[in-house]
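Design review, sub-item: ligand-bound model
Attendees: FS, YL, KQ
YL presented the inputs for the (2R)-2,3-dihydroxypropanoic acid complex:
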Amino acid sequence: MDGRPKVLISRSIPQAALEIVARECQVEVNERDVRLTQEELIERLLEKEGLLCLLTDRVDAAVLAAAPRLRVVANVAVGYDNIDVAEASRRGILVTHTPGVLTETTADLTWALLLAVARRVVEADRYVRSGQWREWGLQLLLGSDVHGKVLGILGFGRIGQAVARRGMGFGMQNLYHSRRRASPEVEAALKARYVDPETLLREADFVSLHLPLTPETTHFLTAREFSWMKPTAYLINTARGPIIREEDLVEALRMGRIAGAGLDVYEREPTLAPGLTDLPNVVLAPHIGSSSVETRTRMAVMAAENLTAALAGRRPPNPVNPEIP
Ligand code: DGY
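KQ shared the predicted structure:
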């Protein structure tokens, strides 16, 4: 009889990660690569001791209650707002995530969106493809300079700091706000000035969000905050959609209260607020911040290592609730 722990992998994952789990566990994989419904998740978790899941899986109290043998939930993401961690802890279930490995890749995409929206790269691409381009024009597709501007970073953890480091390369002035102020060494190295959120929003030419999603950060930006921003300012969000009240953002963009937005995340993914796709001054990506071959593989391998360590009674390298024995 196979005594290895039974685990569910909720979506297909890179082979390297699958092999790590398969060496030590009896694995059931959702090969369809489509999100399991809550009913399917509950049904498939019944006998399982481990779950390796993605941020599209809502591991809520009902799911946890229906999985009496569950010991570990390994999320393939740095964010874990899809998991009811308090309830998991109450049930003695370890939760793990994948910090660090996606920092630079997500900062790269942040910059891709920032540059794309400021320099109208997507509009320009459509313009050329549609055959509208007749000749060079002095005033054709005028955008905004990026170099030398003020970059305001809300949330100054690993990714926020990686974005600031890139900002220095563009000769930008870095402002930031974070729950915890960075050390003087970090501030000096990144030439970053700590300010309150309102000052940041009023002074920045580019506002980039890098906050975790929590009850405190939900709807952190609404019509009021957009009214503080410069009409020439751009907003970039590669963190979590619900940090912004999306309908207010659509209105702010439509009315020209801010100049544009580069978005990778949305309030109700994959549904977008009405009117968002009609706006020319937005660049939209489908939550691909960490989506490079290297990084997504590293994330899945890290989650697999967290899962197998916990099931073998070893300390997983990246616990979210380390108080669980
Ligand atoms: C995360 O890890 O939280 C991202 O949103 C997906 O890479």
